[in-house]
Amino acid sequence: MNELLKLMQTRRSIRQYTDQALSKQDIDAILSAGLLSPSGKNVKPWEFIVVQDKDVLNKLAEARTGAANMLKQAACAIVVIADTQKTDVWCEDSSITMAYMHLMAHSLGLGSCWIQMRCREAQNGQSSDDYLRNLLDYPRHYSAEAILSVGVPAQQRDAYDLPDVNGGKVHFDKY
Ligand SMILES: Cc1cc2nc3c(=O)[nH]c(=O)nc-3n(C[C@H](O)[C@H](O)[C@H](O)COP(=O)(O)O)c2cc1C
């Protein structure tokens, strides 16, 4: 089977991590995958804030109600923000870069999970974006799309079966 397809079939969202640190080489490889992602008109509106400081990771976990607790265990978080004045497709561009980094983390044997920030609320009632801007100090015309939590996996999840994921989603020539 094609290697990339195999990787895609075994990729899962991993939310439990050991307390092992990540190597600089692995973090660099994940960031390179993000930097190599395509963007509309090649504008690349995104920037990445890499967080490894435990205190900051714990504060990042409060950027969402409920869905971000895995950041307390994660060795690293990559916050994807974008310059919203550069392009009207910053959200699509940021999503693609997230997907590339998520898949690269998996290819390195690491676990990772997308944590949504755009259109979401922090535990203190602020928007997740305002909360993150206060915490991380990025400019007002930047917005956060999502955070990728990354760590050495402490859970195993089943691979997908291609016939199962295909069911009814693909149409040829006509709906
Ligand atoms: C746009 C988007 C937003 C997501 N937001 C969250 C989130 O806030 N918290 C979380 O734990 N998982 C989040 N996920 C992960 C999904 O829950 C996960 O991809 C989905 O359940 C399928 O599982 P899999 O990734 O293992 O295939 C998000 C995924 C995407 C693509």
Provide the fold topology:
Layout: H1 3-10, H2 24-35, E1 46-51, H3 54-60, E2 76-83, H4 90-107, E3 111-116, H5 128-136, E4 142-151, H6 162-166
Antiparallel strand pairs: 1-2, 2-4, 3-4
Helix pairs in contact: 2-4
List keywords for this structure.
175 residues, alpha+beta, NADH Oxidase, 4 strands
Multimerization status: single chain
What CATH calls the topology is NADH Oxidase
- What is the CATH superfamily label? NADH Oxidase
Helix content: 25-40%
Round the mean pLDDT to the nearest integer and report it: 97
H/E series, N to C?
Answer: HHEHEHEHEH
User: Quick one: how many beta strands?
Assistant: 4
Domain count: 1
Which overall shape is indicated by the principal axes computed on the Cα atoms? Answer: globular
Largest sheet properties = 4 strands, antiparallel
Bound molecules: flavin mononucleotide
Sequence stretches where pLDDT stays below 50 over 5 or more residues: none
N/C terminus separation: 29 Å
- Total helical segments: 6
CATH architecture classification: 3-Layer(aba) Sandwich
The chain-level structural class is alpha+beta
Lateral strand order in the biggest sheet? 1-2-4-3
Strand content: 15-25%
Describe the structure.
- With 175 residues, the chain is α+β, with helices and mostly antiparallel strands.
- The chain has a single domain (13-155), classed as NADH Oxidase (3-Layer(aba) Sandwich), CATH 3.40.109.10.
- The protein has helices spanning 3-10, 24-35, 54-60, 90-107, 128-136, 162-166, and strands at 46-51, 76-83, 111-116, 142-151.
- It has a four-stranded antiparallel sheet, sandwiched between helices.
- Helix 2 packs antiparallel against helix 4.
- It starts with a helix and ends in a 9-residue tail after the last helix.
